[in-house]
Amino acid sequence: MQWMGWKNAPVKIISGQLFWILLISGIVKWIYYSVLLTTADTDTTSYLKYHANILKGETDALRTPVYPYFIKLIGLFGQQNLNDHVVAAQCVISFLSIILFYRIVHAAFKNRVLVFAATLVYGVMLPVINFDKLVLTESLSVTCTLLFIYMLVRYLQNPGNLKAALLSLFVLITIMLRPSFIYLLPLVIVFWVLRLVIYRKDWKKCLYGLAAAVVVMILIAGYSQLNERNAGFNGVSVVSNNNQVDVIFRAGIYHYGNDPQVSAAMESNSKLKPGTRGINIMKKYAPDRMHRFIITCIKNQPVAYTRYLFTKMIDLRSANIFAMYANFNSGPLARQMDFIQKAVFHINFIFLWWFVALSFLLIIVEWISWKQTPWLSLVLWLLIAAQIAVAIAGGYSEYQRLILPAMPALVIVLFYYIDRLWVVIGVEKSSLSLKFPS
Fold it and tell me: How far apart (Å, rounded) are the C-alpha atoms in residues 88 and 109?
């Protein structure tokens, strides 16, 4: 009988949803990868030349250690064609992340058709796959977002002390991969506080999560202190300063700081190419001095700063939320794939703004109609909104690349509400409330 079970195993695998999703996605990825070149960005060199040893208290002002160490790990298998090897590893991880996505939506949705459709959309999403061939943090960041969501879903399904602690501790990995993930720290703190207030019986689990979040805060503070000692900047990465210098310049508030010398220097750099202003100024003045100047400008002109951010969102409304960074080869198949991705994956930012606003209203409706907190949709919405906020407030260009880590969450939320609609029209009952006990 046991032998018969093994004999039937291949049939079960082939007949399963996940097998066909992986097969179709794998074929699409293979074809798409074949027309893309391994691509390096202007920031790639700083990751490849990273020499800091965190175990010795060394830090790099620009780069956090996870991605450089990932590159070094790949380099252990050979330094020749290192970029190609890094990209190959990213492609494998990206493919495996489809399994994570499937497990998330399989737990969250009742409708099996929507589970298949949502996972397949993620699996063949060319603008996301494109970054697998780029030697930057984006590809791993997408997978880290999925892993965070997966850990959240696992906790909601069956809360436990260890799961709570690991969810919070994982935030440290994400921040050390990509500093813009810093928003996940307040997000998990809010999550645990809300759970503590609403579900008092889970107080011990929530305290485990909060305690782990405090540990992450302490470690981030310690890393910032190392940066202060090594680079004169009390923060995770000085890149935030470089970006914010350009932001306050564009907002027209650089005359309202606490340092006339810096204001004068910014005025003299006003005709430089956008993006180089911050780098040029940062070479002249200490990072902490610039950080204090930036914060003072924003504090003294909060209305002008907010108006500028809002104007930025308005200006973006007609731009495509997707951008392709990896270069194509010169073959005819590459031209066809380029045409397909531009034709299929074109969504203007205005639709993203409306989707975020509408999904927030739907969360409120869920909350009221269920008479219980819709934890998954709430956390996913906060993740998406925070990622967008960090991109808009912290960047001066390339917003498509900056919001990329939120793409898996956006796909899940979109299909989540299609699943909710399925419930409303009475096609079938959802099992979400059963699968995610309080």
Answer: 32
DSSP element (H, E) containing 250: helix 239-250
355: CB partners within 8 A, 6+ apart: 410, 414
- Looking up tokens 């064609």 gives 81
Nearest to 297 by CA among 265, 261, 264, 251: 251
Q: How far is CA 329 from the centre of its chain?
A: 28
Degrees to nearest 5, angle at CA 211 with 208 and 213: 110
pLDDT in tens, 72-117: 999 998 888 999 999 999 999 999 999 999 999 999 988 889 999 9
Degrees to nearest 5, angle at CA 119 with 176 and 386: 40
Give 36's DSSP letter: B
Count CB neighbours of 303 within 10 A.
8
Indicate the residue type of 214. Answer: V
Q: What's the rounded mean pLDDT across residues 331-345?
A: 90
User: Can you tell me the distance from the alpha carbon of 94 to that of 407, in angstroms, rounded to the nearest whole number?
Assistant: 13
Q: Are 321 and 347 in contact (CB under 8 A)?
A: yes
Backbone angles phi, psi at 79, to 5 degrees: -85, -20
Q: Residue 173: exposed, middle, or buried by beta-carbon count in 10 A (0-12, 13-18, 19+)?
A: middle
pLDDT tens column, 225-283:
999 999 888 889 888 888 888 888 889 898 898 888 888 888 887 666 665 666 667 77
Burial degree of 343 (CB within 10 A; 0-12, 13-18, 19+) = exposed
Q: What pLDDT was estimated at residue 368? A: 87
Task: Evaluate whether 348 touches 319 at the Cβ level (below 8 Å).
Answer: yes
Which residue has 């999925």 as its token pair?
A: 146
pTM for this predicted structure: 0.91
The secondary structure of the chain in percent helix, strand, coil, rounded to multiples of 5, reads 75, 0, 25
CB 78 within 8 Å of CB 85: yes
Reference 212, options 194, 185, 182, 181; nearest CA is 185
Rounded CA separation 93/273 (Å): 37
Please compute, for residue 220, the number of CA atoms within 13 A of its CA located in the half-sphere on the CB side. Answer: 27
CB 411 within 8 A of CB 382: no
